Amino acid sequence: ERDFQEVLTELVGDKSLERFRLEYEKLHRALKKSHESEKRLVKKARELNAEIVQNAQKVQTALKLSQEDQNTIASLKREIEKAWKMVDAAHDKEARAKDTISQLKTEIANLSRLVEQGAGLSIGQENTVNELMKVKNDLMRERDNAVAQVNALRVEID
After folding, report:
1. HEC secondary structure over 96-119
2. What is the DSSP letter of 14?
3. What are the C-alpha distances in Å from 89 to residues 85, 86, 92, 133, 153?
4. pLDDT tens-digit profile of 98-109?
5. Whole-angstrom Cα distance, residue 80 to residue 113?
6. Which one of 77-81, 86-90, 129-133 scores highest in mean pLDDT?
7. Letter string b/e over residues 103-132, b meaning 16 or more CB atoms within 10 A of that residue's CB
8. What is the pLDDT of residues 58-68, one digit of tens each?
């Protein structure tokens, strides 16, 4: 800028170089404008570069999160598969338990029927036993009476 001012001062005094001075000023303004534009472009390039670096970091973070999400999804899918297998096993176990319950109910019904039949026989047997006990008691009374009579006759004979 100082050199420009020195050259301009030398050219102002000479009328023959007026045209040259105007062209020189025009070139100087163009050079200044170009320099300012270059500064703006360099600044803009730095800003864009910083933005690119930031965006690259964001992309890396997003990729990392995406990978973690994929891992989580895979893990959850495995857990769901396990849960379904457990549900299927529980259904199978429940079906077997229902079959067992049904078999046991049938067996209980059969045993109950047998017990009722057995109880019917027992009632008949109980009646027979009661009758036999009555006969026994009657026979024991008769024997006791007969023994008493024998003893009485012995006393008379003696």
Report:
1. HHHHHHHHHHHHHHHHHHHHHHHH
2. -
3. 6, 5, 5, 62, 91
4. 999 999 999 988
5. 49
6. 77-81
7. eeeeeeeeeeeeeeeeeeeeeeeeeeeeee
8. 999 999 999 99
